Amino acid sequence: MAKKQFKAESKRLLDMMIHSIYSQKEIFLRELISNASDAIDKIYYKALTDDTLTFDKDSYYIKVSADKEGRTLTITDTGIGMTKEELEQHLGTIAKSGSLAFKSENELKDGHDIIGQFGVGFYSAFMVADVVTVISKALGSDEAYKWESEGADGYKIEPCEKETVGTEIILTIKENTEDEKYEEYLEEYRLKGIIKKYSDFIRYPIKMDVTGRRLKEGSEDEYEDYQEEQIINSMVPIWRKNKNELTAEDYENFYQEKRYGFDKPIKHIHVKVDGTVRYNAILFIPENIPFDYYSKEFEKGLELYSNGVLIMEKCPDLIPDYFSFVKGMVDSEDLSLNISREILQQDKQLKFIAKNIKTKIKKELESLLKHDREKYEAFYQSFGRQLKFGVYNNFGQEKDVLQDLLMFYSSKEKKLVTLDEYVSRMPEDQKYIYYATGETNERIEKMPQTELVADKGYEILYFTDDVDEFAIKMLLNYKEKEFKSVSSGDLGIEEENDNKHEAEEKANKELFDLMKEVLSEKVTDVKVSKRLKTHPVCLSANGELSIEMEKVLNMMPNNQQVKADKTLEINVNHEIWKSLKSAFEQDDKEKVRLYTNLLYNQALLIEGLPIQDPLEFTNDLCKLMV
Hints:
By secondary structure, the protein is an alpha+beta fold. The protein has 19 helices and 22 strands. An 8-stranded mixed beta sheet has the order 5-4-3-6-2-1-7-8, covered by helices on one side. The longest helix has 24 residues, at about 350-370.
């Protein structure tokens, strides 16, 4: 039989198929199984309009067989088969899709959508095979034909014998190279893994002869290998089942089977949408944070299926970064895929799905917060930081989406509270939402700066995450109430003795000027404190950059060395003030310098900031003791 040449610039196209279009060679099996599924679907649709045909789904299957010795891999289907003309037309022309033509000619119903569109999936076989042989017998035909090709140089078609309707694709697997171990595609475990990964939810059974081990008959300790035919795929995906048929255990089992995590999910979300874009989704909110969640190795994304066939293991465009902890999958028949069915050709449908998923996740989290506070708090302990980062990221674009999900520890309630709960309890005379920053709640509780706000009976939110204050600066306000740090220069609280403080500051202007001179490059001002009650000294910050933000930024790898504008505040009702004032009145400037430096370093320690010269600090302490 004379060899025929491919059409449509076959050599260039086939070279692209083998080297450029597919990112992973294992995908060839997904493509061939999808084609086999389409072939069976075509019989189903024929039966809808042909009274002489009956379609019994149990009679149809796909079988994958490996022959290590012969180095062949065979994919057999009981589908519609191909005539000689169809072999010529569909396999002799690269990028000619018989499935796409069938879709155009037939109205598809009952969720039996044809998978193929481009007519290139078949040729992915040449990524792993030197020779591809197709033996096919068409429905209604008495004749069978064999199509065979070694690649871009052409193909042969000749009559052959085949008893049953359907198609066999026989791949003669390439020899191993230094870079590729092609023989892995003849290994049972590898083939099962690829089928489960990509084709687990093909609607027809995918069968394989699987090796088992059992005791030899009549023996107590001698074992033998045996083979039995098994169905490898699950066939009916859980997301296509009616929600009423499923239990919490079914969802948990699916979570474990898909290896989304080793924990139990706190919440599952089952979405089914029929509209402009049809899709099904099952989403999980995990209980525990993955070990690599905050590392660069972590990849966000949902599994993306098209018609039950896995297209992407992790599609990052389906969920925003601040919901990156969500696990699960999306299946849609309406995605526009590229030629390799790996990457989306256009993202209009994907954006629509992503927008709906974002809204659904937010509603479920709000529902969890409202109806199961304990579970929400457990979730928030794991992933609250990511929500706060979402508020800060992209200049606060998503702050309105996330602000009602935020929680912070409350000085009054001694537990996590929402911003809405805080605002609902605010006294009428309270202008701001007050917060304090620190490493732990215990350290914040002891901060000198909290004294005035606490004495007024105002609630304080404790910020212990690095991102907290950055997020709040981006949020600006909540329900028209601005945020105010207890360490800010102006607390917005008027006190009866404010005039007394101002008089004290004026009366001791020369002393404060001298202290400011001693600390010339360390602080922007030294003044009487209105906030301190029992502590002698503290630092406050002026401007947008707080002391806590300075600490966080200076811990970054690029070491920005930023400085907040600090003010040293002195409690004039404390005994230390009397000593300081006495030294100044006695014109003992050396002692004033000593006290000033000690007070400044004390304030640094309270803030958790490093002392610039520890040796000088210890010498100053020794001078005081002597």
